Amino acid sequence: MSKKTVWFEVEENETLDNCLERMREQGYMAMGRKEEPVFEEIDGKPIPVKQIVKFKGVKMDN
């Protein structure tokens, strides 16, 4: 049986816990996490400016 998965991105002014709660409210459970760095070029060099965090959500059976 295949389960539906959706990636949830932690919003700009949201905590990790807030994102996880939002997932639960929509019927998903976190089954993975990934982080992606965001770079900005300053003086010709890539400088990390922030980190994007995403949770892999799997639809829960009720």
Automatic annotation (TrEMBL):
Q: What is the lineage of its organism?
A: Bacteria, Bacillati, Bacillota, Bacilli, Bacillales
What the entry lists under Pfam families is as follows: NETI (PF14044)
| Species of origin | Planomicrobium soli
Q: What is this protein called?
A: NETI protein
Q: Which InterPro entries match?
A: NETI (IPR025930)
